[in-house]
Amino acid sequence: MRWGRIPVHAIVLVLMVIWFTPVLGLFTSSFRTASDTASTGWWMAFVAPLFTGYNYQQAFAIAGVGGSMATSLAISIPVTVMTTLLSAVGAFALTTMSFRGRSILSLLLVALLVVPPQVTLVPMLQFFTAVGLSGTVPAVWIFQVGFTLPFGIFLVRGFIASIPEDVLEAAAIDGASALRIFRSVVLPLSLPILASLSIMQFLWSWNDLLVPLLFLGGTDLTQPMTVQIAGLVQETGQGQSLLLASTVVSTLLPLTILIGLQRYFVRGILGGAVKG
After folding, report:
1. Calculated CA dihedral for residues 186, 189, 193, 195, nearest 10 degrees
2. Residue 8: how many CA atoms within 13 Å on its side-chain side?
3. Model confidence, pTM
4. Which one is predicted more confidently, 220 or 41?
5. Domain boundaries in the chain?
6. How far is CA 37 from CA 46, 49, 57, 62, 137, in A?
7. Which CATH code, of 3.30.110.70, 3.30.200.100, 1.25.40.10, 1.10.3720.10, is assigned to 63-275?
């Protein structure tokens, strides 16, 4: 049995090497000088080690990485919180409450999952301009929450539907209101899937380029990390060094969150898949 697993382990090892090699190259090159990066490959850093933190100093001093990270957090955190809470409330209503039009609303929810957000960018930009939200962070909040909410409700609804009805009925018999059942019963039981949704939402919002680029105006220091990095080489004219260092900085926070909360992420996804 153990010998039969060798091919599987070998394939996993090869995939890990394929994934890790460019990451190692990015991280290593960010600590090399501009001349070394331009003249030799990143692997030469292990032959003749010469590392410097100058690129990171310049990334914060010239490229404004600190301000960009603050803007990215100002977008990603509220979007994550709003999407998670609204998804939980919407999923609870569609799963446990009976009201006219629930079936139609459920079908509409599924239909919205296949609508690409790109087709609504121009109409939404016109709308935000008309109401005075163009160039503001709330415009990005509204768009990102609106287009990830159908998926969030769909994901959480499958998990809530797996909760035994006896549990909800027992709470109702004890006199608990719908709000109390949601707060004291459904939310605690749904924490794994909500944690998974929060991680996915934060990573998507943090890495989103198109929506902030279109909706969020301002100076260089108010641009989120993705927009700042996208125009970094053209704006600074200082080549790859700043780009590499800024890219490494932009990946540290989401990578830390994913590694630190990995078990909750996997538990929520597997729990939803098995129970749903």
Report:
1. 100
2. 5
3. 0.82
4. 41
5. 1-52, 63-275
6. 13, 12, 17, 19, 36
7. 1.10.3720.10
